[in-house]
Amino acid sequence: MADDLRDRDREAAFWALIPAAGIGRRMGSDRPKQYLTLGSRTILAHTLSIFLEHPRIRGVVLVLGPDVDPDALDLPSAGGRLFRVAGGAERADSVQNGLDFLSERAHGEDWVLVHDAARPCLPVSDVDHLLRALGDDAVGGLLACPSTDTIKWSDGAGHVERTLERDRVWRALTPQMFRLDVLREANRKARAAGHAVTDEASAIEYLGKKPRLIEGSAMNIKITRSEDLDLARLYLMQQGRLEGGFRP
Ligand code: CTP
Ligand code: MG
User: Of 11, 23, 88, 134, which is the most exposed, with the fewest CB atoms less than 10 Å away?
Assistant: First the structure.
């Protein structure tokens, strides 16, 4: 009984889960894009540092591809807060592996922030904003950007079928932040049903819930093609994060 009470009063912890098991097909480089360097560090190291250096993140689960030797990676020092897990064929499989791992260590009510390894330019202030905005939310949500372009819905054959209302169109970014148990269940069910799970919110939506949209910075690009690398360098430089240490 006393334990139950303690458990209920326990404040939910925040965990980061970084899927980094992709091959970077669209980048077309000699190695998966997360191992390319920006300044003196890999994209992956830049991304990990955001969470490892954040005082409110309890631990970071890094999901890696099968052929990766973690000891050969230039990973930031983590003081025992970094856990490595093997990835799967699709991003949602990699995320599932990370969630399964976390469920052995974390509380079901804890928050998980899933963030693409390929988004190293996420401003720390956006992480703070997400934690503040969603910490008491029933469902959770995601960073997103209102679309600045008008969005056309195609008929699937190269013609416009209709124009979407621009002020209701948002681009989904990461981190996406949900409770561990809810997200694990949503991801598992949506995948089992063959639903396309391209982000965590789509799995939560599959359960009939409505994730909150939290406006984030457009600097938080997903590095996809080679032309994104220069832009990412510029954004890191603007944040004072291009060389050496991350935070002043
Ligand atoms: N990812 C993963 N496991 C997979 C596929 C992707 O962990 N099976 C990760 C990637 O490493 C990346 C993030 O999910 O950090 C977003 O995926 P994306 O940008 O599509 O990366 P890739 O799948 O590597 O790139 P591409 O689609 O061009 O092959
Ligand atoms: Mg991909």
Answer: 11
* Nearest residue to 135 (alpha-carbon basis) of 227, 231, 11, 229: 11
If you measure from the C-alpha of residue 163 to the centroid of ligand 1, how many angstroms do you get, rounded to a whole number?
A: 29
CA 66, CA 45: separation in Å to the nearest integer? 18
DSSP letter string, 9-61:
HSPPPEEEEEEE----TTT--SS-GGGSEETTEEHHHHHHHHHHT-TTEEEEE
Domain 2-238, CATH among 2.60.40.10, 3.90.550.10, 1.10.238.10, 3.90.1570.10: 3.90.550.10
H runs (alpha helix) in 145-226: 180-192, 200-206
Contact present, 87 and 97 (Cβ < 8 Å): yes
Q: Are 18 and 60 in contact (CB under 8 A)?
A: yes
Residue 170 one-letter amino acid: W
Tell me the whole-structure pTM to 2 decimals: 0.94
Pairing of strands 57-64, 14-20: parallel
Helix intervals (H) in the chain: 2-9, 43-52, 91-103, 124-134, 180-192, 200-206, 227-238
Nearest listed ligand to the Cα of residue 93: 1
Structure token digits, residue 196: 């396309």
> Cβ(89) to ligand 1 under 6 A?
yes
Q: From the CA of 89, how far away is ligand 2's center (Å)? A: 10
- Model confidence over 172-201: pLDDT tens digits? 999 999 999 999 999 999 999 999 999 999
